[in-house]
């Protein structure tokens, strides 16, 4: 896609020059985040002694560390694609961690049953968000903040304030195990992301989610049930949040209050970072995955180089702001 | 700032001389000359697109005229921005009033010109003193601390007038102030306008209600096709004379469509539909194979009527029957499920998804037909793209390919996309609102052919249009609405632009007869 210049008899050299400029700017706007990740990898592979950064085990480690964030962030991506907002996913994940462990330890449920019930509870929380936003027409920020706070309350109520430990070995093994030499969370992430990608890009529901996000009024007049579509997106986000909470409990070996709260901000950072990648500011699953990976590559590399922890956060915030700003500015200049 | 008493009543205040304005080849104003006198209510009347609003927008600094001059107090003025207009003492109140919801009356009145203390802060005491004087003048009987949202439309108009007077306006232009007022409220507003002019202010009064124009306005300018076709100074015209001037001796250039080969059973049957506000007891019928037009002036309630039909708004009373069965649509999706197609009024904000590709836009209305199986939701996007490509060729959409974003197409081609999405499957009813607004002449003719073809294949088609020539060229039958009511119906050779226009103003006659 270069210029849509009308047919002129003599293409002026100046026009050719600006066309080049445009291609470069468009490249920066679309691939800037990926280029940044490339630069980071080069810097870390040179900066970390003994090539430890580029070792297969470290690279797998980075992906493994990204897996849980990628799952919760991909679910949240659908809510942003549909044009809404969800501040409750972190709290929903925390509740899920406490609930799934409690169901096994206190209620004695089998592992798969406990996980299923927990994911259903997460979906129900998403449905509650969706109903509030669509039917009661509560602003999404307010509705999901309210529901999220109630979820915190439920977490405390269910766990009576203390962590739930003494988990079945099989549950801990869920995230500790490997298949074909690759950690299980990576496989789970791959399955979830492929399902969500297909859902968003290759199913009627996904097309509707995109349409509602692009223009809700037009979507309504094409015959899309806007409310249902939005509720579906919230439900998926809730289910993904619950799954992340379950996996985190397995990693930690306990159901801990507030353990997953931090995923909220990490998810938003990854999603917005991803929206500045490959597509023109649109939210999409692959972008979200790249967003998560960029942050974790940075974290991993910086800590291997022995950088103080506070730098990792400055890096994380900095790259988010920088990538999105750069991509937006480049796109604007490319259009002008 | 000059005080209102600078010019004596009846003296020319504003003189517009041979103003011309062209929009992309369309002449919106041609050699328009108008004189507005101090202390006089000056009526602007004319059909949709006759040039009234364009002239007002030129005076307000929204449009720049291509040629011609504007003189204030005998001196030529250049109006580049809304601020220029306001500095010259001209205030404009548009139909969508620029009130700030949630603010009280005082703050709404003081918007843009509060008094300041020496420290540069707003001097609310001085502002309030001034506001109280102005409020007294325009007959505001409610508290200045009332929240503007709680006021009736009529009272909100008073606040807008008061704001204009806060700024020492010598000329106030009002665009259809009475359109949404009850007769009592309207006559109250008339009284206030008379007091304003008695105090020396000039008022431009735009209205489709000809009876009130003939009663209220001392001077009247009649617009038609961008020209001034009649000027009456100090001589009151009756509403019959006004209709005569508005309709004029229009040459009927438009060719009528061939009568439909076969008109079938009624597909759409609406009886006594009301929304309790903008649509009152409206009925109409559309048969299979028939193109029915819905004509009338802007604001007559036509769009609202169609939105009631396809479920975008709640039907208060009345009944909608589709193919003989009573239906109750809660949202447009219910109508679409019953094979109704909708092409909404605002193409860019309601009709198409500008950032999305052509095939996305086209296939969205029939996604389920692209599923691999009933229980397999995987979309056959390849088949969808082929289908879109076929429709692009069939409908004649000029595009590089099915993957091009719709936003990159011309207005006419965007509209063809909005229509094409309903062609993937047979629709029993198609409702199009202003299908050729902002569409060039060539694409317009193609759209008309497309619409006729659809009817020819047995669909019932309902077309809302403010362009009467379009209704003449396209429709087998035209239903005309005015002020929320269906006021008449024209069939076959009765359908002329003149007849549609005369009916559009019909309700104004009735009110006069009652008065």
Automatic annotation (TrEMBL), chain A:
The keyword Cell inner membrane applies. It is found in: Cell membrane. InterPro entries: ABC_transp_permease (IPR001851). Its main location: membrane. Pfam families: BPD_transp_2. One of its GO terms (molecular function) is transmembrane transporter activity. Transmembrane segments: none annotated. Keywords: Cell inner membrane, Cell membrane, Membrane, Transmembrane, Transmembrane helix, Transport. GO terms for cellular component: plasma membrane. This is ABC transporter permease. The keyword Membrane applies. It is a multi-pass membrane protein.
TrEMBL record, chain B:
Gene3D superfamilies: P-loop containing nucleotide triphosphate hydrolases. SMART domains: AAA. One of its GO terms (molecular function) is ATP hydrolysis activity. The keyword Glycosyltransferase does not apply. Keywords: ATP-binding, Cell membrane, Membrane, Nucleotide-binding, Repeat, Sugar transport, Translocase, Transport. It comes from the Bacteria. PANTHER family: CARBOHYDRATE TRANSPORT ATP-BINDING PROTEIN MG119-RELATED, D-ALLOSE IMPORT ATP-BINDING PROTEIN ALSA-RELATED. SUPFAM superfamilies: P-loop containing nucleoside triphosphate hydrolases. Transmembrane segments: none annotated. This is Uncharacterized protein. InterPro entries: AAA+_ATPase (IPR003593), ABC_carbohydrate_import_ATPase (IPR050107), ABC_transporter-like_ATP-bd (IPR003439), ABC_transporter-like_CS (IPR017871), P-loop_NTPase (IPR027417).
């Amino acid at each position: 896609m270069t210029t849509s210049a009308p047919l002129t008899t003599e293409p002026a050299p100046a026009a050719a020059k600006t066309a080049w400029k445009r291609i470069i700017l468009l490249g920066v706007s679309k691939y800037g985040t990926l280029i940044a990740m490339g630069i980071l990898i080069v810097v870390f592979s040179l900066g970390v002694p003994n090539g430890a950064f580029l070792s297969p085990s470290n690279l797998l480690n980075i992906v493994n560390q990204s897996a849980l964030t990628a799952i919760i962030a991909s679910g949240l991506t659908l809510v942003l694609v549909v044009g809404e907002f969800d501040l409750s996913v972190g709290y929903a994940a925390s509740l899920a961690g406490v609930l799934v462990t409690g169901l096994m330890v206190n209620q004695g449920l089998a592992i798969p049953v406990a996980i299923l019930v927990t994911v259903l509870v997460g979906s129900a929380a998403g449905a509650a968000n969706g109903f509030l936003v669509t039917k009661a027409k509560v602003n999404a920020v307010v509705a999901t903040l309210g529901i999220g706070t109630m979820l915190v309350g439920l977490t405390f109520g269910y766990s009576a304030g203390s962590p739930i430990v003494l988990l079945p070995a099989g549950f801990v093994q869920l995230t500790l195990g490997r298949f074909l030499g690759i950690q299980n969370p990576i496989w789970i992430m791959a399955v979830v992301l492929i399902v969500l990608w297909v859902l968003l890009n290759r199913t009627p529901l996904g097309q509707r989610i995109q349409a509602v996000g692009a223009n809700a009024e037009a979507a309504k007049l094409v015959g899309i049930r806007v409310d249902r579509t939005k509720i579906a997106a919230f439900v998926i986000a809730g289910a993904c949040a619950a799954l992340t909470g379950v996996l985190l409990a397995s990693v930690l070996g306990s159901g801990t209050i507030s353990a997953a709260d931090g995923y909220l901000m990490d998810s938003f950072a990854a999603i917005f970072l991803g929206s500045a990648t490959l597509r023109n500011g649109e939210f999409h699953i692959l972008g979200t995955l790249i967003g998560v990976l960029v942050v974790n590559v940075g974290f991993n590399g910086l800590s291997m180089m022995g950088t103080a922890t506070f730098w990792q956060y400055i890096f994380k915030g900095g790259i988010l702001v920088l990538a999105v700003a750069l991509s937006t500015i480049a796109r604007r200049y490319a259009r002008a | 700032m000059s005080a209102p008493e600078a010019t004596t009543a009846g003296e020319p205040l504003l003189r517009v001389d041979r103003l011309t304005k062209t929009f992309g080849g369309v002449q919106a104003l041609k050699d328009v000359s108008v004189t507005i006198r101090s202390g006089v209510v000056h009526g602007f009347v004319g059909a949709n697109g006759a040039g009234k609003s364009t002239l007002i927008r030129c005076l307000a600094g929204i449009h720049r005229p291509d040629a011609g001059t504007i003189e204030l107090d005998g001196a030529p003025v250049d109006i580049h921005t809304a601020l220029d207009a306001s500095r010259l003492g001209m205030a404009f109140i548009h139909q969508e009033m620029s009130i700030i919801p949630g603010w009280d009356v005082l703050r709404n009145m003081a918007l843009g010109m509060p008094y300041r203390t020496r420290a540069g802060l707003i001097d609310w005491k001085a502002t309030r003193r001034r506001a109280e004087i102005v409020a007294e003048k325009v007959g505001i009987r409610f508290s200045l601390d009332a929240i503007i949202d709680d006021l009736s439309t009529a009272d909100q108009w008073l606040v807008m007038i008061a704001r204009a007077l806060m700024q020492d306006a010598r000329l106030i232009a009002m665009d259809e102030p009475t359109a949404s007022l009850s007769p009592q409220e309207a006559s109250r507003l008339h009284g206030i306008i008379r007091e304003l002019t008695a105090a020396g202010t000039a008022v431009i009064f735009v209205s489709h209600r000809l009876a009130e124009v003939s009663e209220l306005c001392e001077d009247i300018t009649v617009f038609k096709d961008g020209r001034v076709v009649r000027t009456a100074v100090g001589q009151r015209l009756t509403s019959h004379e006004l209709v005569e001037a508005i309709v004029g001796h229009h040459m009927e250039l438009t060719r009528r469509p061939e009568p439909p080969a076969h008109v079938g059973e009624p597909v759409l049957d609406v009886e006594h539909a009301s929304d309790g506000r903008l649509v009152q007891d409206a009925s109409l019928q559309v048969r299979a194979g028939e193109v029915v037009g819905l004509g009338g002036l802007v604001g007559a309630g036509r769009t609202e009527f169609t939105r009631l039909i396809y479920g975008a708004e709640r039907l208060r009373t009345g009944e909608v029957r589709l193919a003989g069965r009573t239906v109750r649509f809660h949202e447009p999706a219910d109508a679409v499920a019953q094979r109704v197609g909708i092409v909404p009024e605002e193409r860019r904000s309601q009709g198409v998804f500008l950032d999305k590709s052509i095939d996305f836009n086209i296939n969205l209305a029939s996604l389920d037909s692209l599923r691999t199986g009933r229980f397999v939701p995987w979309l056959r996007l390849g088949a969808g793209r082929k289908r879109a490509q076929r429709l692009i060729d069939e409908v004649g959409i000029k595009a590089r390919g099915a993957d091009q974003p719709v936003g990159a197409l011309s207005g006419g081609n965007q509209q063809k996309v909005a229509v094409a999405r309903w062609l993937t499957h047979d629709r029993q009813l198609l409702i199009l609102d202003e299908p050729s607004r902002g569409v060039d002449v060539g694409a317009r003719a193609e759209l008309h052919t497309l619409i006729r073809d659809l009817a020819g294949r047995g669909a019932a088609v309902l077309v809302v249009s403010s362009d009467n020539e379009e209704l003449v060229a396209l429709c087998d039958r035209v239903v005309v609405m005015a002020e929320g009511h269906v006021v008449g119906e024209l069939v076959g050779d009765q359908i002329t632009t003149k007849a549609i226009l005369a009916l559009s103003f019909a309700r104004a006659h009735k009110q006069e007869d009652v008065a």
